[in-house]
Amino acid sequence: MNLIPHYPPHNDAPIEIALVNNMPDQAIEATIEQFASLLRAGARDLNFRLRLYSMAGTTRSETARSLIAQTHEAIDMLYARGADALVVTGAEPRAPQLTREPYWDEFAQLVAWARVNTYGALWSCLAAHGAVLALDGIERRREEHKISGVFACETTLNDWTMQGAPRVIQVPHSRYNGLAREDLECCGYRVSSFSREVGVNNFWRREPSLFLFMQGHPEYGANTLLREFRRDALRYINEETAIFPPTPANYFSAVAVSGIADLRDTADTTRRMRFLERMSALLEAEAPQAIWRVYAERLYRNFLSQIAFEKAMRSRSLAI
């Protein structure tokens, strides 16, 4: 697939975008804002309408279910209404195998529906892992340590997703599992960007819907990795996990990296308040920058432009 053709979309016919939000309870609202903000920035002059959906199988607290009920619609409404483009968020893994997640059957049905009922779909992180498993049986591989940080990724020349991007881009990653490049390419997926440190960043394949997959998180805000690190550190100090989280790579200042190393070496679960005070003071002094934002907006611009082009061509064909 070559670069995106330049064909003017019909601005009076908005692109209908469905966002399926699978993120955990504490991240529901932040996730909506992250993706909606990036869609707005990427769309520029393209007219679009965003609707929120949720899957019944996603584990939720009663409070979160109440919020979801007010802001999201059931997935059956998506099937009834339809959409031009689909965006599916990642989720916090709860089972060792994706097929044992409580929402798996519902998710696999969504993948099958999107193949023939959308112009394109964007699958984020765990959703990307689940989609290629449902499509081709490709299993994700557990990493030795959690991948967390901002990593340099080399872009593929003449790839439509990377149109206008520099040779190297910076992208946030936050995951425990990964997909091997050789497994993907054997099944006909095209890798658009790749990191020598953490592997494949994003890739795509025509289904016939245009499926775009991301192992990274270009939608992240400047402080998202910071909040995730704090959450994981608190889980350690509260003895919910036995491992102190890795410091996000290429993200914190040198002062913070040194301070976090001291915290890790002296962390004592019996002195929680002292730990919390030191952690708060350390992280509150940080002011991370979303250096990946320009790339993220360009990626979404390319994706939405392709959707608009294909929708316009379909409309033109039907008119003729």
The total tally of domains equals: 2
Per CATH, the class of the largest domain reads: Alpha Beta
The biggest beta sheet reads: 10 strands, mixed
Strand order of the largest sheet: 3-2-1-4-5-10-9-8-6-7
CATH architecture of the largest domain: 3-Layer(aba) Sandwich
Distance between the termini: 25 Å
What shape does the CA trace take? Answer: globular
Task: Report the mean per-residue pLDDT as an integer.
Answer: 93
Annotation field: number of helices? 10
Could you describe the 3D structure shown?
The protein has helices spanning 28-43, 62-71, 75-81, 104-117, 126-136, 181-186, 224-237, 254-266, 272-284, 293-319, and strands at residues 15-20, 48-54, 73-74, 85-88, 120-124, 141-155, 168-178, 190-195, 199-206, 210-214. It is of the alpha/beta class and 320 residues long. It has a 10-stranded mixed sheet with strand order 3-2-1-4-5-10-9-8-6-7. Strand 1, helix 1 and strand 2 (48-54) form a beta-alpha-beta unit. The radius of gyration is 20 Å and the shape is globular. The two termini are 25 Å apart.
Task: Sum up the structure in keywords.
ten-stranded mixed β-sheet; single chain; 10 strands; 2 domains; alpha/beta; Rossmann fold; 320 residues
In short:
The protein is α/β, with parallel strands linked by helices.
Layout of secondary structure:
Layout: E1 15-20, H1 28-43, E2 48-54, H2 62-71, E3 73-74, H3 75-81, E4 85-88, H4 104-117, E5 120-124, H5 126-136, E6 141-155, E7 168-178, H6 181-186, E8 190-195, E9 199-206, E10 210-214, H7 224-237, H8 254-266, H9 272-284, H10 293-319
Parallel strand pairs: 1-2, 1-4, 2-3, 4-5, 5-10
Antiparallel strand pairs: 6-7, 6-8, 8-9, 9-10
